[in-house]
């Protein structure tokens, strides 16, 4: 969050230059920003606050301030409900699908951006069509495939399913970014004696950082959050991921709102951390890649 | 990595270079053929079969029997499709409206803008199950917001929005709005930032008011982004299962059962794979036709 306060400090003076010539009706008044924004922030933040209060206040308390702060709910969740294990599982799945999605999308994205080849259009149309495939409805055939491969109850089934469903959008994002890197930069590297591969690593890859951060973090957040695949493909409790564990607190332990809230905090922490890091790249990454194609 | 003359592109045999793009997309193609196209094809195949795990003696080729059953004998198909349409329509319309407003607000320059953006966007990253968890706490009659409002004398005690068929729809809509609006806001903000400042300055020198600048510059520029994000969101909201599954379970009394939830119930709980596949096929066809019609009618990409 501290990254944000430092964002573009120099914009203010330049923004004021044209304003001197503008008429009064042109200006956005402060209240037009702050009133709707505050209302919306209330809507956004109250649920988070509610969860934090329930997670940190003692059992049986009805105070709306989490005071005195207690960690008993977290101890319950982490130890008795084995969230430590779920956390590790989710982390492994998230990182594995991040790596796989990024590598496969990088290779494919480079081909789409830099080569003309037969079947390219067909491939693009195919990728677009996959967006209409309802993930929830592929459960039965996917389950049968994973059973045939012996991957049911293995975390690899989640990694593969996540990667495949993330691929089309990641490919489009990354190839959009590579197109924006001038091909002359690469050609200069080839002239200097680089191979295509070496030129790619030395010249293109460093410029792709915002795209890689965006694609990688989407993949991570997606697989961290995915519930349905994890619920359907994995039934052994030692292989549960955080969302599945959380859904069990929703059902079986619904009386214990403290545990539910603490589980929610545990589930949110990695995403919040990733989010804090990618904030800067997010808007930039989307504007250059996804929307422009 | 040592560079040898053999590595130089000029020395390559012509056939080799032509293979490179295929090698590069091969992993993506294999993954998508194996885990998207093949499963989709097998869904189509099953939809033409009687395939029920609990009734193996009845299994075999069914022709269009499953589709006949779906169209003419299954009121729950029509009911869940109707709820899906209502759900998607209301959700996407409200998300677009609030998302656009929010994007315009956080695109202005003001003190604390970065922090405001971070806070406004934060629910976007929260999962369906976690969203459910938080809102279950909020909606609960003894621990939720309503109890504290009742303590202040602003409400009656005992309001349980999720258990009441009259309120459950709007309770679910509000929950999904909470994490859906930021998606629109992020996408539209990204596009707003790519509008050249000079356009606005030129327009305001020519005496165009803020409203006219919005109508003649901002909206046309955002058109493609709005069309694309609305379409994607329609498809995602249509297919979204985790929130409703954990929040209401499709209840009370099928009041919040979307088509995908109904499919999951048919296929997974009653093991009727053949019929479940027919439902899936129907949903896929509906989505595809909707998407094509939407892109045609909206003339996507036609702006210059």
Automatic annotation (TrEMBL), chain A:
Residues 87-278 form the ABC transmembrane type-1 domain. GO terms for biological process: transmembrane transport. It comes from the Bacteria. CDD domains: TM_PBP2. GO terms for cellular component: plasma membrane. It is found in: Cell membrane. The chain crosses the membrane at residues 33-56, 91-113, 122-143, 155-178, 199-221, 257-278. Pfam families: BPD_transp_1 (PF00528). Keywords: Cell membrane, Membrane, Sugar transport, Transmembrane, Transmembrane helix, Transport. Gene3D superfamilies: MetI-like. Residues 1-23 are annotated as: Disordered. It is a multi-pass membrane protein. Belongs to the binding-protein-dependent transport system permease family. This is Multiple sugar transport system permease protein. It comes from Streptosporangium becharense. The lineage of its organism: Bacteria, Bacillati, Actinomycetota, Actinomycetes, Streptosporangiales.
Automatic annotation (TrEMBL), chain B:
It holds the Pfam family BPD_transp_1. The chain crosses the membrane at residues 21-48, 87-106, 118-138, 168-190, 273-295. Residues 81-296 form the ABC transmembrane type-1 domain. Keywords: Cell membrane, Membrane, Sugar transport, Transmembrane, Transmembrane helix, Transport. One of its GO terms (cellular component) is plasma membrane. InterPro entries: MetI-like, MetI-like_sf. PROSITE patterns: ABC_TM1. One of its GO terms (biological process) is transmembrane transport. It is found in: Cell membrane. It comes from the Bacteria. It is a multi-pass membrane protein. Belongs to the binding-protein-dependent transport system permease family. This is Multiple sugar transport system permease protein. It comes from Streptosporangium becharense.
């Amino acid at each position: 969050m501290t990254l944000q306060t430092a964002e573009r400090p120099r914009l203010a003076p330049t923004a004021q230059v044209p304003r001197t010539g503008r008429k009064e009706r042109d200006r956005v008044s402060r209240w037009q920003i702050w009133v709707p924004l505050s209302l919306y922030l209330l809507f956004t933040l109250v649920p988070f606050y509610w969860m934090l209060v329930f997670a940190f206040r003692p059992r049986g308390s009805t105070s709306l301030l989490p005071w005195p702060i207690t960690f008993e709910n977290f101890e319950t969740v982490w130890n008795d409900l084995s969230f430590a294990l779920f956390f590790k599982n989710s982390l492994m799945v998230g990182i594995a699908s991040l790596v796989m999605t990024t590598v496969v999308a990088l290779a494919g994205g480079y081909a789409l951006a830099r080569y003309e080849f037969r079947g390219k259009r067909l491939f693009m149309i195919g990728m677009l069509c996959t967006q209409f495939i309802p993930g929830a409805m592929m459960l039965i055939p996917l389950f049968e495939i994973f059973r045939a491969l012996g991957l049911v109850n293995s975390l690899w089934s989640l990694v593969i399913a996540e990667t495949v469903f993330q691929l089309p959008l990641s490919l489009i994002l990354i190839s959009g970014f590579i197109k924006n890197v001038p091909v002359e930069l690469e050609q200069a590297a080839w002239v200097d004696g680089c191979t295509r591969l070496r030129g790619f690593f030395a010249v293109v890859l460093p410029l792709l950082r915002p795209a890689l951060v965006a694609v990688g973090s989407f993949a991570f957040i997606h697989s961290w959050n995915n519930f349905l695949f994890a619920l359907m493909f994995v039934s052994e409790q030692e292989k549960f991921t955080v969302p599945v564990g959380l859904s069990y607190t929703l059902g079986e332990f619904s009386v214990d709102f403290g545990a539910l809230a603490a589980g929610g905090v545990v589930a949110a922490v990695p995403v919040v951390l990733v989010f804090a890091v990618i904030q800067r790249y997010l808007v930039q990454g989307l504007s250059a890649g996804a929307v422009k194609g | 990595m040592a560079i040898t003359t053999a590595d130089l592109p000029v020395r390559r045999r012509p056939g080799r270079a032509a293979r490179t793009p295929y090698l590069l997309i091969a992993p993506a193609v294999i993954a998508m053929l194996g885990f998207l196209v093949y499963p989709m094809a097998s869904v189509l195949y099953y939809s033409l079969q009687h395939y029920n795990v609990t009734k193996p003696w009845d299994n075999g080729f069914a022709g269009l029997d499953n589709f006949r059953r779906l169209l003419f004998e299954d009121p729950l198909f029509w009911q869940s499709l109707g709820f899906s349409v209502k759900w998607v329509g209301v959700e996407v319309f409200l998300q677009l409206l609030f998302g656009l407003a929010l994007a315009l607000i956080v695109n202005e320059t003001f003190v604390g803008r970065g922090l405001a953006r971070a806070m406004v966007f934060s629910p976007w990253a929260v999962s369906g199950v976690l969203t459910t968890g938080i809102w279950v706490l909020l909606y609960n009659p003894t621990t939720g917001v309503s109890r504290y409002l009742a303590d202040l004398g602003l409400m009656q005690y005992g309001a349980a929005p999720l258990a009441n068929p009259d309120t459950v729809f709007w309770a679910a809509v509000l929950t999904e709005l909470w994490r859906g609006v930021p998606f629109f806001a992020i996408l539209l903000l990204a596009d707003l930032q790519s509008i050249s400042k000079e356009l606005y300055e030129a327009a305001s020198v020519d005496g165009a008011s803020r409203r006219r600048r919005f109508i003649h510059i901002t909206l046309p520029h955002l058109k493609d982004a709005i069309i694309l994000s609305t379409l994607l969101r329609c498809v995602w909201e249509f297919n979204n299962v985790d929130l409703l599954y954990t929040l209401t379970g499709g209840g009370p009394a099928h009041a919040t059962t979307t088509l995908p939830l109904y499919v999951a119930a048919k296929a997974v709980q009653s093991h009727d794979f053949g019929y479940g596949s027919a439902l899936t096929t129907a949903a896929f066809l509906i989505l595809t036709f909707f998407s094509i019609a939407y892109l045609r009618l909206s003339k996507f990409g036609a702006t210059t």
